[in-house]
Amino acid sequence: MEDYDNKFFLEVKQSICTHLLDLNEKVKMTETGIVYDSLVKDLKLEDYKGIEKKFIYIIYIKTEMNDLNQSYLEAKTKTQRSFAKINKENENSKVLYVGSSKNIYSRLQNHIQGKSEKTYSLHMKSWVIDSDNIYIKLLSFDDSVEDTVIQLIEDEYWDKYKPRFGKQGKK
């Protein structure tokens, strides 16, 4: 029986390793590129209207902004909007938010303009004073990429950059 258990364990281990190697190759080949990396205020949101493609987006700052956390907290407590969670342990991170979406136009409208009060997002229009320092990076992915692979990539970005706001994906 012991030999059978060892053989079974080794087969399972080998299967997992093969799966991880395959997943690693998929991750390397999935990102079709950085579509956009510039100031949020320069983003032409209309260019993304109707595009149903898989994206990961990272909203970040290059230099620290005075009272950024305080401004966010005040806006969050003064309105009925559904603001993204504050990650107190990451309060000094230059990355504000990491997320993914299949409808990037709608999702960024929520983050930038606060189009939907009930959608958890940054609602930047209600608290950002210095939009000359908030950037966004959009990464697009081929439609053949599985959602689980995109989620793994998003989770890796989240783990690496530890954003100030939002919650980690469906890990």
Task: Please write out the topology.
Layout: H1 2-30, E1 31-39, E2 54-61, H2 68-78, E3 95-101, H3 104-113, E4 134-141, H4 147-161
Antiparallel strand pairs: 1-4, 2-3, 2-4
How large a portion of the residues is in β-strands, by DSSP E?
A: 15-25%
The H/E string reads HEEHEHEH
Q: Largest beta sheet, briefly?
A: 4 strands, antiparallel
Helix content: 25-40%
Mean pLDDT: 84
Uncertain stretches of 5 or more adjacent residues: none
What general outline do the C-alpha atoms trace? elongated
Coarse structural class: alpha+beta
Distance between the termini: 36 Å
Cross-sheet strand order for the largest sheet:
1-4-2-3
Would you count the extended β strands for me?
4
In DSSP terms (H or I, runs of 4 or more residues), the helix count works out at: 4
Radius of gyration: 19 Å
